[in-house]
Design goal:
- By secondary structure, the protein is of the alpha/beta class.
- The chain is 52% helix and 6% strand.
- The strands form two sheets. The chain has a six-stranded mixed beta sheet with strand order 2-3-1-4-5-6, sandwiched between helices.
- Strand 4, helix 9 and strand 5 form a beta-alpha-beta unit.
- The protein starts with 14 loop residues before the first helix and ends in a 33-residue tail after the last helix.
- About 7% of the residues have low confidence.
């Protein structure tokens, strides 16, 4: 887990860009129109708002810059010292301090000019105070040009630093330049560090990651260090010293016994002794690299004693390897990781937290409850195998499914036997044909010993029923077709007329309470009276032997009287049904006959009319000729200048 992500620091603009951004935002986010005819309080508020907004914008941007940069007192000592080496602690703090001081001055300027604007007595004076306030703020920002430029360079360099976790498991590679540190880094990690045959190829810290025991380890490749006083070390060398001094890691000190790096063994041993205080309380391992060129046993006795004496004095171990041929590289990685794990475990044991946990742990030991012996159970098959091993008898090789597959024809031909390992009471049952199981039962559970007799009875019953059905159909064919006589037809006609009359009455009841109820009731009564007259007329004609005319035969007097009544009432009926304005009344209006044959046809006509007017009522139209279109946006609600901070819906 990385504690610090310097790549998230926002870019620091130059002073000119800073001023342009602030003034442009003030112009966009504040009102821009003011007239001398306004009240003086409104003019003051106009310019006070601009001064306050500018001061607030500058304050927010400077605060963002200050908060994004790390504070040296709050970060890990490794990063604090590394930033001191790279950027100079005093210069870094001075730049941030100037930004903080400028922010404070701008806040004071904003409050001062807002106070002065409260006493402005004219538009011109208020405008000049606003210009003076914004101008002084811009002048303070322009004086920060050097500090802002320096912080932008620091930000760019911080974003390129490797992400090093000071609390993670770490291996640090150090030594003279060109002794094979970067080559080892490329061998054990997924990093790709540049390797060249000259000194100081690596000029900064490089981080790579490797895995050991299913844990992630970070390996840090440091620049080469020369044997000279600390005050004379360059920035490149100080990065290595900072990592060695502040990171709790396993140290790998590389030495080149072949002297191909350009430095003698005596110089390498001297450097090892000079920087040994940085190795205190850390696992240390001396790596004798380039053993393919020269091994420790091949050097002179004096140099060998010098190297071994320094290693013994430091109380560490050494290991020979060759990064070129990868000889001993894996063993070096394992040994360094194991040393660090042991060191971390030892620190935990010595800590107070481990003692607190150890005091809470209780290990229960069983006690003997009687004299009965309870030895461990060993299966007979295991005892047999042990006896065969003691006698020196070779154990038979177990035949696996892979062996059976090779014998049986290979993949795609061999089919594994799944039944041979079944655990049954009798092994002869393994290859029996298994019946199909349905709902926990097999076919044997559904077998009835008398099933054949029951099937025969069912077939006989089916044949008997089919025979009875054929006899019944034949008897129906022989019967004559049913025909209605005169009395039946008359009864049927009366039933139909009664049903039609009931429907009309029901429609009249539904129309109650909708207006014009008196006329509807009168029409219903007239229709009922007409139906009774038709019945009486048909009865007289049958008595006289004149026949039946389907209910429409009226006498001459009755026909004339009906025509005279229709002529007298035609005007009022026409005015009632045609000239009256259309309403939303969807009830059925019953006329007398209206030129229709019967009440059923009249009821059907009423329903068709109601269905036709339903479409018009849905659109709020007064009739088929109504073409009026309503205005959905009236001018009074969507015209004129809209007031500030309001919407059209608030009108």
């Amino acid at each position: 887990m990385v504690l610090y992500n310097f790549k998230q620091i926002e870019a620091v603009p130059k002073s000119k860009e800073f001023v342009d951004v602030v003034l442009s935002k003030t112009q966009r986010k504040t009102p821009t129109v003011v007239h001398k005819g306004y009240q003086i309080t409104r003019i003051r508020a106009f310019y006070m708002r601009k001064v306050k907004f500018t001061q607030k914008t500058i304050h927010e941007k400077l605060t963002t810059v200050l908060d994004s940069f790390p504070r040296l007192d709050d970060v890990h000592p490794f990063y604090a010292e590394l930033m001191n080496v790279l950027y100079d602690r005093d210069h870094y703090k001075a730049a941030l301090g100037r930004l903080n001081t400028t922010r404070h001055y701008i806040d004071q300027l904003g409050r001062e000019y807002v106070r002065l604007l409260k006493f402005g007595d004219s538009l011109y004076r208020c405008k000049q105070l606003k210009r003076a306030g914004l101008g002084r703020m811009a002048t303070l920002l322009k004086k920060l040009d050097d500090s802002l430029g320096y912080l932008e360079e620091v930000r760019q360099h911080l974003s390129r630093l490797p992400s090093i976790d000071p609390n993670s498991r770490t291996l640090i590679v150090c030594g003279f330049p060109n002794v094979g540190k970067s080559s080892f880094m490329n061998r054990v990690t997924r990093a790709d560090v540049d390797v060249q045959p000259y000194a100081f190829t690596t000029k900064s810290l490089f981080v790579g990651h490797t895995d050991y025991r299913e844990m992630s380890w970070q390996v840090i490749d440091t620049p080469g260090v020369l044997d000279k006083p600390l005050r004379d070390c360059s920035t490149i060398e100080m990065q290595s010293i900072t990592a060695l001094g502040h990171l709790k890691a396993s140290i790998l000190y590389f030495m080149d016994l072949s002297c191909q790096c350009g430095y003698t063994i005596d110089q390498q041993v001297t450097l090892f002794k000079n920087i040994s205080p940085l190795f205190a309380n850390k696992p240390l391992l001396v790596v004798l690299n380039k053993c393919d060129a020269l091994k420790l046993q091949d050097v002179s006795v004096d140099e060998k004693n010098l190297v071994l004496g320094a290693i013994k004095e430091a109380g560490c171990d050494y290991l020979e390897c060759s990064t070129l041929h990868q000889e001993g590289v894996g063993d070096l990685k394992v040994k360094a990781c194991e040393m660090l794990l042991a060191s971390r475990q030892e620190q935990k044991v010595r800590g107070k937290k481990y003692q607190d946990i150890e005091n809470r742990i209780y290990c229960a030991m069983p006690e003997e409850r009687d004299e009965r012996a309870r030895p461990s159970f060993i299966p007979p098959s295991v005892m047999k195998v042990r006896a065969m091993k003691e006698e020196g008898i070779d154990l038979p090789k177990r035949q696996t499914e892979r062996d059976l597959e090779e014998v049986g024809g290979g993949p795609g031909v061999y089919s594994m036997d799944m039944r041979k390992n079944y655990l049954l009471a009798n092994d002869d049952w393994k290859y029996d044909i298994m019946p199909e199981i349905i709902d926990g039962k097999n076919i044997a559970d559904f077998i009835d010993p008398d099933i054949e007799e029951r099937l025969k009875e069912l077939e006989e019953e089916e044949d008997q029923r089919l025979e009875e059905l054929r006899d019944l159909n034949a008897a129906r064919d022989e019967e004559d077709t049913f025909k209605l006589n005169d009395s039946s037809r008359e009864a049927l006609r009366q039933v139909k007329e009664t049903v039609a009359l009931m429907r009309v009455e029901n429609a009249a009841k539904k129309a109650r309470g909708r207006g014009k109820l008196g006329r509807v009731a009168a029409a219903v009564e007239a229709h009922q009276e007409l139906i009774h007259k038709n019945r009486e007329s048909r009865a007289r004609r049958r008595e006289q032997g004149l026949g039946d005319f389907d209910g429409r035969d009226l006498s001459i007097d009755e026909s004339a009287r009906a025509r005279s009544q229709s002529t007298i009432r035609s005007t009022s009926r026409t005015r009632f049904f045609s000239n009256s304005p259309a309403t939303r009344d969807r009830g059925v209006v019953v006329k007398k006959l209206g030129g229709l044959k019967s009440g059923s046809q009249q009821l059907k006509a009423f329903r068709m009319a109601a269905k036709k007017t339903r479409v018009l009522a849905r659109d709020s139209r007064q009739g088929e000729s109504d073409r009026h279109h309503f205005d959905m946006k009236p001018k009074w609600a969507f015209s004129g200048k809209m007031k500030s901070q309001k919407t059209r819906h608030s009108r």
